[in-house]
Amino acid sequence: MNPSVETRTSIVWDYSPAPESADHIRLKDRYGLFIDGDFKDPADGRYVPTINPATEEPIAEVADGGPDDVAAAVESARDAHPKWAALKGLERAKYLFRIARLIQERSRELAVVETLDGGKPLRESRDVDIPLAAAHFFHYAGWADKLHYGVNAREVRPLGVVGQIVPWNFPLLMAAWKLAPALACGNVAILKPAETTPLTALLLAEICQEAELPPGVVTILPGDGSTGASLVRAPGVDKVAFTGSTAVGRDIQAALAGTGAHLTLELGGKSANIVFEDAALDQAVEGIVNGIFFNQGHVCCAGSRLLIQESVRDEVISKLWARMGRLRVGDPMDKNTDVGAINSAEQLSRIETLVAAGEEEGATRQSIACELPEHGYWFAPTLFTDVSPAHRIAVEEIFGPVVSVLTFRTQAEAIEKANNSRYGLAAGIWTDKGSKAFEVAGALQAGVVWQNTYNHFDPTAAFGGYKESGFGREGGPAGLRPYLEVVR
Ligand code: NAD
Ligand code: MN
Q1: In 3-state terms, what secondary structure has residue 431?
Q2: Strand partners of residue 162
Q3: What is the rounded distance in angstroms from the CA atom of residue 428 to the CA atom of residue 450?
Q4: Does the annotation mark 300 as catalytic?
Q5: Atom of ligand 1 nearest to the CA of 269
């Protein structure tokens, strides 16, 4: 054989590395608790490192709030509330607007820190998390002087001090979802970030200082589950807003029963992504990929149950598998990376346990071949076929890059299977027929239904669940209601 031909045909066209630089990041070695407008040492002096899940290297030490710190936070928030609530809506709006602008100004830094601390691809933190966080502050800045119109012209008042607990999958974005509507409505907030991803919330605390937000209006209280547990039980907290697992949501609801404190819960999901035979299949495949591999599948509304109409099952699966083979898994700081690191060792072991259960129960597993870095937590994008509706991988939230395929024959069967879940957070419908999309959407028990798209977020649209996915809505005018009490 002609050697030059051999060389030519063996050329592998690949992307060059495109790492984002972290040189411009100036993190402190230690972050305290942001209470009363300043960073403070925790009462018991406890600091814990937060690590980069892609390298397992520590990034900074972060205070771990205890019960005394929770008490100090509530006291400062209570003191701050009357003045904040008495401000004209237009004045509160100015602060929210400033925060939004400062997030934009510091967006490059925030994106890099989000990726370092949590493992998500930089492309996502840069293009989704940070811009959407700013957009939520802008959106609710607009509502602050128009609350009346957001609640059917009723007379309303804020609830007071709200305790907010967020997870690690969208750290800054979830903080924005929680803080922006609460502040717009005249509440003051104590936010507890997740233990593996506290850094962007602490940078947001710096932004609150820069925006000259009055002390006590926003408190950032890093810590673990026990910090969260004392926050929700603290006397003087008028409302709790929680996003995270159903188990913790249940615990919080039990703790608050009978106390008179308000509560909203945004919990897990096992959302159905439904592909009908008349869908544009290539487009659907992109939507399936975005639905389950976006953010390593660490998405409460991930399209983790893929329902395909039997007539197009083989075609969709072969296209999907081919597309999955082109996913780039690895260094989250590389701008070409599609799937980054799993957020923590604990989460990786949860994913591994459920995937092992899928294999044991008889489903067929295919994971893409990819070279995974030596350090850090990784899981190759995985497809399960031959799944029965009773399998654990069809029922339980995996919260990882794993999709379970089920099939259906008729529209009625699609609806029945999609609703056959104790969750009801989101769903996707892929069809060329508008009437079918509306009919199916109307029959689905899901807070959000996407048509011919998936994982599309917008601050003007309400988000929230049915059944064990929780209650209450975030986003848009509906997101104001859980932070207000109707007076008349
Ligand atoms: P989690 O519910 O334990 O943690 C979420 C937040 O709640 C964190 O800030 C945590 O510190 C806090 N918390 C933990 N225990 C608490 C308690 N008793 N009282 C008050 N706050 C408490 O979630 P996890 O353990 O990190 O993840 C477990 C599973 O939860 C995941 O595999 C996934 O299925 C699901 N999850 C869902 C979401 C979502 O967006 N709906 C987010 C994260 C995790
Ligand atoms: Mn971390």
Answers
A1: coil
A2: 189, 239
A3: 5
A4: yes
A5: 41
Element containing residue 324 per DSSP (H, E): helix 313-324
Residues paired with 190 in a beta bridge: 163, 219
- What residues contact 483, with CB distance under 8 A and at least 6 apart? 158, 159, 162, 181, 182, 184, 185, 187, 239
Catalytic, 370? Answer: no
Q: pLDDT value at position 60?
A: 98
Which pair of tokens denotes residue 85? 């609530």
Count of beta carbons in the 10 Å neighbourhood of residue 16? 6
Q: Express as a percent the part of the chain with pLDDT over 90.
A: 96
pLDDT at 1: 44
Residue nearest to atom 19 of ligand 1 (CA): 229
- Whole-number Å distance, alpha carbon 134 to ligand 1 midpoint, is 24
- Look at residue 325 and tell me whether its pLDDT is greater than 90: yes
Other Cβ atoms closer than 10 A to 202: 25
Cα separation, 202 vs 453, in Å, equals 33
Give CA separation, 327 vs 316, 321, 342, in Å. Answer: 17, 10, 15
When the pLDDT of each residue in the chain is averaged and rounded to a whole number, the result is 96
Q: How remote is the CA of residue 47 from the centroid of ligand 2, in Å?
A: 14
Tracing tokens 């308000």 back to the chain, one arrives at 262
Ligand 2 mean position, distance from CA 48 (Å): 11
Tokens 């892609």 identify what position?
A: 54
User: How far is Cα 12 from Cα 468, in angstroms, rounded to an integer?
Assistant: 48
Taking the CA of 64 as reference, the closest ligand is: 1
- Number of other CB atoms surrounding residue 33 within 10 Å: 28
How many Å apart are CA 220 and CA 164, to the nearest integer?
10
Can you tell me whether residue 157 is helix, strand or coil?
strand
Number of the ligand closest to the Cα of 202: 2
Gap between the Cα atoms of 420 and 228, Å rounded: 32
Q: Closest Cα partner for 229 from 195, 201, 197?
A: 195
Compute how many other C-beta atoms are within 10 angstroms of the C-beta atom of residue 438: 13
Euclidean distance between CA atoms 455 and 170, whole angstroms: 13
Residue matched to tokens 């509706």:
389
pLDDT at 153: 87
Helix/strand/coil for 122: helix
Q: Is the pLDDT of residue 5 over 60?
A: no
The ligand 1 atom nearest the CA atom of 224? 11
* Other C-beta atoms lying within 10 Å of the C-beta of residue 5: 9
Distance from residue 480's CA to the centre of ligand 2 (Å)? 31
Question: Is-contact 393 384, C-beta < 8 A?
Answer: yes
Structural domains of the chain, ranges and CATH numbers in brackets: 30-267+469-486 (3.40.605.10), 272-458 (3.40.309.10)
* Among the bound ligands, the one closest to the CA of 244: 1
Strand 484-486 with 156-158, pairing: antiparallel
CA pseudo-torsion sign 68, 72, 75, 78: negative
Q: Return residues with CB closer than 5 A to ligand 2 (ion).
A: 50, 117, 196
